[in-house]
Amino acid sequence: xxxxxxxxxxxxxxxxxxxxxxxxxxxxxxxxxxxxxxxxxxxxxxxxxxxxxxxxxxxxxxxxxxxxxxxxxxxxxxxxxxxxxxxxxxxxxxxxxxxxxxxxxxxxxxxxxxxxxxxxxxxxxxxxxxxxxxxxxxxxxxxxxxxxxxxxxxxxxxxxxxxxxxxxxxxxxxxxxxxxxxxxxxxxxxxxxxxxxxxxxxxxxxxxxxxxxxxxxxxxxxxxxxxxxxxxxxxxxxxxxxxxxxxxxxxxxxxxxxxxxxxxxxxxxxxxxxxxxxxxxxxxxxxxxxxxxxxxxxxxxxxxxxxxxxxxxxxxxxxxxxxxxxxxxxxxxxxxxxxxxxxxxxxxxxxxxxxxxxxxxxxxxxxxxxxxxxxxxxxxxxxxxxxxxxxxxxxxxxxxxxxxxxxxxxxxxxxxxxxxxxxxxxxxxxxxxxxxxxxxxxxxxxxxxxxxxxxxxxxxxxxxxxxxxxxxxxxxxxxxxxxxxxxxxxxxxxxxxxxxx
Length: 501
Fold this sequence. Notes:
GO terms for molecular function: pentosyltransferase activity. By secondary structure, the chain is mostly helical.
């Protein structure tokens, strides 16, 4: 007897509803989890906000759009990081909705749901979506670019040219990998007959003009900053190590797809029960060009991105794992054929839920239990609100002026710049990275210099004492983390640079 669960019936009858339910549920997890267990924002999010506060056209961290949007979201939420977390989840929702629209156009709505479900296990696991920045903002823009590219090449919809040009322009304002992404799309179009036919119209010229207008301010900044040159190529002696690095990055992408491989194996005939009559998810025949489109953009971004990472010795895949692996779920669905049989439905649901929830569960366990088993400090365990409030109030009481700038330890200074009344951040070890403030200007307008104290006297580190020779250290201030565990109390040394005049 055939058993068909309610979930399968919903996939068949209301595929769009299923997509919205799972995407919103996943976004809710990552929206409220950091608010509960994070004392400070993850990664370099505090630095992103510090750079966004200045509204620079360009910095060494890349194009400006993600930094501007982060600052706008932060201010809109009343100077609370909730606004940035919400913005990150909006990007995730937009990514998967755009992916579903693309999948529905190629394999139909029901199998499009399966493509989204599979891609969620990869994108969520390989790159969590809390740390908003260029990598997070690039995902929905890349998904929209692929959607509009298919509408142009596969469906011959000329009305999509304007949206395509907006996608390209915003990508150029988001990530340095944008040029490579656009070249991949252009390369696919040139390599196919229908793509070349699309490019013969006059519309691409107008689209190119829109792209140039959108990206022109950043392009001008690149020229003025002399930042158009590529990093130096490796020497011949380093090619072996760079090839190894390429293999490591590419292998990491393959490992990130482990959940998809497991689900495919569990759904294969090897584990099918005897006399089982599984439900079937049907699709109309796929356009051969659609198959080529899906396979190309499922493999090319990962291969090219990992090669660039190996060539220039980058820590992660160029462009981000969320971009490189976005089409992996749709590629598996296309390769599965017109009829997809869902065997062992309960087991498949359990494995899928575990794959999606595992990163959130891991973050919760690390925040609450890792401090009791290790002396490694989590960046998210620092009490940023208490740190920012203390130094902001202390400076105002001592000088009768609001805190205007903060320097010293980059991690601590970024947290204060975010949590206090948005003082300027000065990276005094590399002042060229913060061109809006110099050490001389800092000494003139005043501010707070902070560092991690190693003794009860609060002696500043030699490098900070050298850059600020007239510092008079204050009594170090101690702070408790969310969970101290085996970690020593966080002790911050600090000194006030009083404003001149």
